Amino acid sequence: MKPIRGGLKLDGKKDTTAVSWTITRPSPPRRVRIPLSFASDITVLPTVRVGESVRVGEKIAETKSRNSVTLHASISGKISEIAKFPHPLLGESESVEILSDNKDESLPEIGHERSGWELLSSSEIQRILGESGIPWNQPSSPIDTLIVNGCESEPYLTSDHSLLMSHPVEILKGCEIFFRLLGARNLLIVLEDNKEEVAELLKSKIFFNTWSHARVEVLPSRYPQGHETVLVGSLLKKPIQPGHSVWEVGVVVQNVTNVYAAYEAVVIQKPFYERVLTIAGECVAQPRNVWVRIGTLVEDVVKYARGFLRPPEKVVLGGPMTGVALGTLDIPVLGESRAILGLPKEVVRLDSIEPCIRCGRCVESCPVSISPVMITLAAEKDLFEVAQDYGAPFCIECGNCSYICPSKRPMVELIQYANAHS
């Protein structure tokens, strides 16, 4: 398989968390804050009141929107507040705060195999996923191929790798659940070439199951290989136009976390209230992969890795290329949070911004073949139509251009500015 067009070969920095595939499961936190907002205009409604007691897995918020999900308590205890708290993406959000009762009591059905789960219809699977809080929208067009994305092309991240090594059988069952739900014909599990042992493990399981519809594809390790638009282009040679979905070319891309969560929801009746998260970075005392309850505050998660060896210059929620820099550690882990990184001064670029020198490196590294240099120069002069002509709508915000720019220009921010005014 040929590498993606453009892209970057980054220093993986994965060794500290890739030494062992054991996923630590610490004691539950003393409190969690679970945001009720998924975007500035998408909010779910709480189904609990202050003072009520809840068990792990109990529903605390519901929605009728296709763009949000049902929420569940991630610890047992009492609802202490329903109020606005800091949010990593929105500034602040209405959230449900739960204080632990130190019992970690869960709903009685969690962990018990659902009788007849192999025979469930697509509509029944869809209902279970929705009630379990797993992000999922039924495509409006027929699906030919399900791609399960096991690429982790950003530095430090190994949460998917550890989950694949620790739970291959469960993940394959999750793949089959989504495959049946979609009525697809082909299943592709996609990995990068730094996961050869995972690839061989999954191939052996697929051979044992005699799955003729499934195969494992190994791609070169190159960022941003894991972006769904790039994946579909690399694997199936199907370009995705701006504003369009991969559904429209007959493809659905699911990540490893969602696939494993689908297995847990359908097979062992466990709602989505925890996920594997990488705690890493040069400032972290003991980098590792950890099971983290959704809503756990970042300051508490860092303690699972013995805290910081030295004060970090920047704490990032997510990967170093696409994550969010945090101004406070009083921020909850979300369902989509993949990592917490403590980065030192020598890693964080604090250089001053210089004028563009027209070196062309941003064009060479762009995986979707647009011209970041021309878009950003146009954006600085408010020439938004010119920015559109040079491909601003095609930007996938991978951050390659900002990373490679010798003048340290805020390329992604300028492209976002151009698109916001188009």
Provide structural commentary.
There is one protein chain. It is built from 13 helices and 18 strands. The chain is of the alpha+beta class and 422 residues long. It has four domains: 31-100, OB fold (Dihydrolipoamide Acetyltransferase, E2P) (Beta Barrel); 112-268, Rossmann fold (3-Layer(aba) Sandwich); 285-343; 361-420, no CATH class. The strands form five sheets. A five-stranded mixed beta sheet has the order 15-14-18-16-17. It has a four-stranded antiparallel beta sheet with strand order 1-9-8-5, with no helix packed on it. Strands 12-11-10-13 form a four-stranded parallel beta sheet, with helices on both faces. The longest helix is centred in the middle third of the chain and has 15 residues, at 168-182. The chain starts with 14 loop residues before the first helix and ends with a helix. The mean pLDDT is 91.
CA distance, first residue to last residue: 36 Å
Helix share bin: 25-40%
Counting DSSP E segments of at least 2 residues, the number of strands comes to: 18
Name of the CATH architecture of the largest domain: 3-Layer(aba) Sandwich
Shape: globular
Radius of gyration from the alpha-carbon trace, in angstroms: 22 Å
Q: Mind summarizing the main beta sheet?
A: 5 strands, mixed
Structural class: alpha+beta
- What's the multimeric state? single chain
What is the count of structural domains?
4
So what's the CATH class of the largest domain? Alpha Beta
